[in-house]
Design goal:
Chains A, B: It is a multi-pass membrane protein. The structure is a homodimer. Chain A is mainly α and about 190 residues long. Chain A has five helices and two strands, in the order H-H-E-E-H-H-H. The first copy, chain A, has a two-stranded antiparallel ribbon with strand order 1-2. The longest helix of chain A is centred in the N-terminal third of the chain and has 38 residues. The first copy, chain A, is elongated and about 65 Å long. The first copy, chain A, starts with a helix and ends with a helix. At the A-B interface, helix 4 and helix 5 of A face helix 4 and helix 5 of B.
């Protein structure tokens, strides 16, 4: 097949040029891969920290009850922090492999491994972000039918903080989809 | 590169055999792709139907309030049904392209398109399933700190049904990760 295409493009006489040009594109893809991974690391770490440090104590309290809201009160938020931490760790560990791809753009099986783990991590991150988003929505709106009240009426800054912390995760989700596509694109190129 | 490896494997004299053997593996991967898509269609459609038809009316009611629980009372469940329906539709539409890959195992750019949309649909499905799971968890356990009560104590069969409907989606998520990996594997093979 490779030979056919080279002939089609009329480049059979320029054969020595094909290698460097192709690896130039592969290198650009690998550089983009490292760059996107860095952005995703920033997104997930920002999300984990923003959520993990959320804590609001209301200025009034009775003798028995102190009104305090922490992220760890809701299991979905704990899962959110854990998912972001795991994905962030994975991304940091994947950077060296990604840098190897800049040096060796034609590597294939290591890219395949990255595609698989990127997809698994995308699923984990989406699960965490989406579960947290469902609870944030409930905290804002409440639910009349289930008799769940909107806690954001009391815990105003708590709610702002947990809503904002979702942004980094959702950005990282988009970046991971792009990373999967980039790896697949690098694999689709003829070597 | 292609030539180097052929020489390394000492198969330069068997060159005519490489084509059919390689396309045999490619064909097997494509058949597995179609099969996994069918399974994922069954999973998503079962989830959407199980959740979409959930409805429980308690046998007692007052003059003013009838105790009824429907999936559409909770926005997360509506999103869950919509996400499953969209992913199911996409999977049905992707089957023809997947069948084309059985006939032409070396197709590359159409596989690339499938990888991208598979990843996007994986994200959508995970978001739906995970948001629904967060609410199902809340319905079972409630949350003392937020004053949200476990509604499953009253709506027993409703809760069983919504819990069960998640299974199909989570199975489809695993299948979609496998589909992305299969496509990447098909792309990683030398053509």
């Amino acid at each position: 097949m490779t030979k056919d295409v080279v002939v089609e493009h009329g480049e059979s006489s320029k054969a020595p040029l094909v290698g460097p040009v192709a690896s130039g594109v592969g290198r650009a893809v690998s550089v983009a891969d490292v760059f996107l991974r860095f952005l995703a690391i920033i997104g997930t770490i920002a999300s984990a920290i923003a959520m993990g440090t959320t804590n609001e104590t209301l200025p009034f309290f009775t003798q028995f009850i102190q009104f305090e809201a922490k992220y760890s009160d809701l299991p979905s938020f704990t899962f959110f922090v854990a998912a972001n931490a795991v994905v962030c760790t994975y991304l940091v560990l994947s950077i060296p492999l990604s840098i190897v791809h800049i040096i060796r753009p034609s590597a294939r099986y290591s890219r395949l491994i990255l595609v698989f783990f990127d997809a698994a991590m995308l699923t984990l991150l989406t699960a965490g972000a989406s579960a947290a988003a469902a609870i944030v929505y409930l905290a804002h709106k409440g639910n009349v039918r289930a008799n769940w009240f909107a806690i954001c009426q009391q815990f105003d800054s708590f709610c702002e903080r947990i809503s904002g912390s979702l942004i980094g995760s959702f950005a990282a989700m988009v970046l991971l989809i792009m990373l999967i596509f980039l790896s697949a694109f690098a694999l689709a190129r003829r070597h």
